[in-house]
Amino acid sequence: MMMGFGWAAFWIALAAVIVSGRWYKARCQALKYDAIVRLAEKTGRIDEEQFKLLFPPPGPLPSHWFAPPPAGQGRMVLRVFGTIVLAVGLGLMTVFLIPWLQDSSVPGVALAVVLAFFGVGLFVASRFAPSARGDREAP
Asked: How far apart are CA 114 and CA 92, in angstroms?
């Protein structure tokens, strides 16, 4: 019966870690604000240097998952997938070629040929995708 409560202990421990981390972060921010308020009460003004030390400006926002990819990324993806599909098509062609020569199993060879041409098509399409700025070869 003790094994059944292992999952509950895991989730409770995980929740405790998350809650304590957020509490610590909130407490650090509250202490910073408290220090600024005490400095303002004591001196009557807020020093910009100390304020910037306590509260650094936020960094740049992370890009979203739906943001456009960097230049040249589509070209690389097309080449990688084209190479993989071409290799799979050629591998299937070698697997199905020997039985095809013996008893003409056409569907396997046809599938291999279609995959090989699809891989070549992806690879050729990568030539027309926009290149990265530092890419050495012409489009």
From this structure: 11
